Amino acid sequence: MKILILSRNRNLYSTRRLEEAARESGHDVRVIDYLRCVMDITAHRPKVFYQGEALLDVDAVIPRIGASHTFYGTAVVRQFEMMGTFCLNSSQAIARSRDKLRCLQLLSRRGIGLPVTGFASSTKDVQGVIDLVGGAPLVVKLLEGTQGIGVVLCETSKAAESVIEAFRGLNADILVQEYIKEAGSTDLRCFVVGDRVVAAMKRIGAPGEFRSNLHRGGTAAKTKITPEERTTAVRSAKAMGLRVAGVDLLRSNHGPVVMEVNSSPGLEGIESATESDVAGRIVRFIERHAKPGSNWDRIVG
């Protein structure tokens, strides 16, 4: 098969592992910077060019789209979809997962466990949003934040009011969520491929840090998840229309709750913690499912 990996940096661990796994399986694989792709948007003859070369006869595309380049990256993925190329994650699914509010709304509609979440535009409604999530302590999140950036734990209502008013004063869109105290500084990352969780790890925040992101000094270890957690992760990925996803869960007193669904989950942490060949599982999934005309997205919302 001829496989393209859309990535801005071929030296990133995730990109490198996917390339290695594809080559080990005998595929012709190439890494291209999606920001350097040029799209020819012509009726009945859509094309993608890279450094002057038309990218034709591609069997599968693996999108590794960075959060800061979602608009252009999903446009490139969509162009390949128009050409009938199998894309591991569709442009619509990537866009859904990047919009945190839309993501939570879709999960809510399907009855998937979530932290109580409030969203409001006006600073005049701050106290109402705080009360809605059960008061302090609570968590304030920037809608556009990634890797734990823009996530603030507010211990008191006054602190929450100040943080919310500051963010809204900068015209930043935010979510206000209940703080799952029993989870502490730990969460679960479930790596979903197709309809299965192929690896799972527990992430533990650094001392004094409630965020468990590995980029913020957290540590990770292989963990065993419950059938309910496994089902929740798979349902969450399907709700987004994602074939490959990293689903972040918290263990609450009322069961697993979803914090985020990631359309370009990193491989380094999960492979190191679990000693699993996740990249190989992704390549084998592509081998089984890549075929022309298989990009139809049936998710509504």
What can you tell me about this protein's structure?
Helix 1 crosses helix 9 and helix 2 runs antiparallel to helix 3. Strand 9 and strand 10 form a beta hairpin. The model has no long low-confidence stretch (mean pLDDT 90). The longest helix is centred in the C-terminal third of the chain and has 14 residues. The chain is an alpha+beta fold and 301 residues long. The protein has three domains: 95 residues, Rossmann fold (3-Layer(aba) Sandwich); 63 residues, ATP-grasp fold, A domain (Dna Ligase, domain 1), CATH 3.30.1490; 107 residues, ATP-grasp fold, B domain (D-amino Acid Aminotransferase, Chain A, domain 1).
What features would you highlight for this structure?
five-stranded antiparallel β-sheet, 301 residues, Rossmann fold, four-stranded parallel β-sheet, 32% helix, D-amino Acid Aminotransferase, Chain A, domain 1, single chain, 16 strands, alpha+beta, 3 domains, globular, Dna Ligase, domain 1, 27% strand
